[in-house]
Structures are given as C-alpha cells and as structure tokens.
Design brief:
It is a single chain. With 231 residues, the chain is of the alpha/beta class. The protein has a single domain, classed as Rossmann fold (3-Layer(aba) Sandwich). The chain is built from six helices and nine strands, in the order βαβαβαβαβαβββαβ. Helix 5 links the parallel strand 5 and strand 6. Helix 4 runs parallel beside helix 5. It is globular and about 50 Å long. The relative contact order is 0.15.
C-alpha cells in the first residue's frame, strides 16, 4: 500500500518540490493551496494521475482544513504524513506593515498550522505517522522589526508543543528550519538577495530524510543553511 501524505501550500516553492519528490518515491500526495489555478498548473507538470489530489482551500479556515483531511482519508483510506508548509512573509518591516496584512500573515503562519495539527492528529495516531513543520532560521535567529520572524518563532514552539503531546502515541514530529532558499517567497520582496541560497529541492530532500527515518527514530529539529550564509 502506498504511503499517503498531505502538504499544505504545495502549489509552488518548497511545497511543490516536496510533493514532486514524494510522488517519485511512490507516495499518494494531497496538496492544498489557496489558488486553484496554481494548483492545476502544478498538477499538469507532474503527470501523476490518481496519485495526486488537489485540494483548493485556505488553511486559516477550519472547515477547509477538516475538509481537506477528510477528503484525503476517504479517498485513500489513511493518512501517514502531513507537511505543514503554507505560509508567507510581508515585504518591508513591522513599521511599514498594514494591520490587515499583519493579521493575514499571523493567521496563515500561526493559526493555520495549529488548525492542521488539530485536524490531522487523530489520523496520524492511527497510522503512527509523521508530522513535519516548515519553520525558518528566522524563527531561531531573530532580526529587528520583523513580524515574520515572530510567526516562525511561534511555529517552532508549536512543533515542540505538538511533539510533547504525541510522542507517546508513536507520532514523529520534525521541524525543518531552512535559511535562504531560492523560491517565489522573494517575489514580493525585491527578488532573491545576493549571496548563497539553497534550492527548494534541497529542502525537499531534507523533509524526505525526516520522513524516511526507521520506526522508533524521531528527528525533532533540522536547521539548514547554504554554506556561506552567516545569519
């Protein structure tokens, strides 16, 4: 039986690279995203047939989150892994942000992951599966005037909080915290800054490394930077 993995925010960047890698490894992959057109474009590039499921929806919406997980389990009978990836950053600094945009980022980067955890854990306890959170070096090494850093710090806390809650149930929990990655993350921030950067595929390989650990082994925090990145 093929393993079943759900990825939030999987239409581009790290989420898309991870979905592609999992499909190559023989997983059945469900991918959520707010933009149905982007999800469709991603699917066209994969030629994955029935092994790829598209689930348009917003992870800040509890009904959409529960619906995505329910649909995945109903279609494929199980849920083995969940990768909590959906999130975004605002351009500029805290001093520049519009309050409505700040609210949207906090809801997407903090509330959304918490809703996913709440909805998926009963199924992961049944499968004794694994849960991967996409954090950031920014969540461990703060920079001034940076609300995104605050939201990723909260993601790191959620990962450890969840690990404490479910390790006795046989569920693995890993936080993957990348440094600079060349993805569409930078599109609204003036482009990729100069200096070394990883690819989305590099981070996807780290995620698969965590998922493919043998039973009984739990890698809790994987922080990665391109060689040459100082902060």
């Amino acid at each position: 039986m093929k393993p079943v993995t759900l990825i939030t925010g999987g239409s581009s960047g790290i989420g898309a690279a991870t979905a592609q890698a999992l499909l190559k490894e023989g997983h059945q992959v469900a991918v959520t995203g707010r933009d149905a057109d982007k999800l469709a474009a991603f699917a066209e590039r994969q030629n994955a047939g029935d092994d790829l499921m598209l689930l348009p929806g917003d992870t800040t919406d509890p009904s959409a989150v529960h619906g995505a997980i329910r649909t995945t389990v109903q279609a494929w009978g199980q849920l083995d892994h969940v990768i909590v990836n959906a999130g975004f950053s605002l351009p500029g600094s805290l001093s520049d942000h519009i309050p409505e945009a700040m609210r949207a980022m906090v809801l997407t980067n903090v509330l959304g992951p918490a809703l996913v955890v709440r909805a998926c854990l009963p199924h992961l306890k049944e499968s004794r599966g694994r849960l991967v959170f996409l954090g950031s070096v920014a969540g461990a090494k703060h920079t001034p005037d940076n609300l995104y850093s605050v939201t990723k710090w909260a993601m790191h806390a959620l990962a450890e909080n969840t690990r404490l809650a479910v390790t006795g149930d046989g569920v693995g929990v890993t936080l993957v915290a990348p440094g600079k990655v060349d993805t569409p993350f930078w599109d609204n921030r003036g482009g990729l800054p100069e200096g070394p950067a990883m690819s989305a595929e590099d981070v996807a390989a780290c995620i698969l490394f965590a998922l493919n650990q043998p039973p009984g082994i739990d890698l809790n925090h994987l922080q990665m930077r391109p060689i040459g990145q100082i902060n």
